Amino acid sequence: MSGHLNGLQKKVLDKAPQALFVHCLAHRLNLVLLQSLTNISLCRIFYKTISGIPSFFHHSSKRTHNLGPLRIPTVGETRWSSNSKLLRVIINDWNTLKGTFQNIIDNHSSDSTTVQMAKGFISDFNDFNFTFIAHVSNQVFQTTDILFDVLQKRSLDINYCLTHIEKVKTIIKEKRCDTSFQIVFEKCLEKTELNYSGRQYRNMTKEEVVMKFRQLYFEILDNLIMQMEVRFQDLKKISFVSLADPEKFETFSSKFPNDKLQHLEEMFPKIFNNIPRLKNELELIYIDKDFHDKPLQDVILMLHKDKDIYVEAYKLFALIATIPSTSVSVERSFSCLKRLKTYLRNSMTQERLTSLANITIQKDILQDLMKGSLHSDIIELYATAKDDRI
């Protein structure tokens, strides 16, 4: 996938051997969630089950009508973070969904296939295993969703992204404790009754049943932590980027990070061939409080004004600014381009559908317009139009 054998990466490295390849961090996080949440059999079954809920309702407008104002988001197979929205709806509207499935079963006009599928979903909602995995997964997504946003929106600030990756690792490790497990377990008991005398717990005491779910909780988090360590371990090769982290300037002013400077020299010996001068320039920057706690872009602009003075330092900061954290703008699985391609093929002769596609592409502009009087203007336009023009 990275093209290290005969792809674009290999062709670039042939021309520029010192070019630094950074695999899209957002895509790595997607793989972390995919591998950690499907390696466990119960989790894999759970996600296969919930992916069928949107399909169940979207298959028929009659089924969708039973939801009322509630809407079920679809799940993208290539983007695992999309499961977060679906899980949030399932947990927040738990009883509403159960009631909807029951209404479908009780409705005499429902066909046999619809009734059987609705009975299956109610059975899942009444299963404590299903409830438990739903809440643990939701806890995971609450932590990783923020990181996804950071990796996709702060693509030109690699320091900021790496800092948040470490923060998420720390948060997940802190949740791996008996206190966090007990909180999740009690939330599940509020939604679904745990039948300690059930067939699957026939030869187990109540304490052993609780211990079983405790082990499952730790197993899920351990898988997630391990995947994050493996997927992001090679980021150590760009540890030198912390040299340009304004949040660490005050710390570096009292203790200079010689190990990171040495790593930079090993990575780019031809570009940074005057390490003593670079160190002196960095020491001056670290001491100067005007540079502290500012965004990387602002620091670069300040150095640009004195680039004849901070020759080596400006070169370093400019290099770090060119290291992106994500390539989501060109990855079809992270954008609407894949959906639009098929959509436009079916709307080539229909101006209305093409306009809807433009609205999808320029949704940021639409959101700004909606802050004003867009809705009232549209209503007024239709109110004054003749009936045959509507």
UniProtKB/TrEMBL annotation:
Q: This chain belongs to which protein, by name?
A: Zinc finger MYM-type protein 1-like
Pfam family for this entry, one: Dimer_Tnp_hAT
Gene that this sequence comes from:
LOC113465817
Q: Which GO terms describe its molecular function?
A: protein dimerization activity
Chain ranges of the HAT C-terminal dimerisation domain? 296-364
* Alphabetical list of InterPro entries matching this protein: HATC_C_dom (IPR008906), RNaseH-like_sf (IPR012337)
The organism encoding this protein is Diaphorina citri
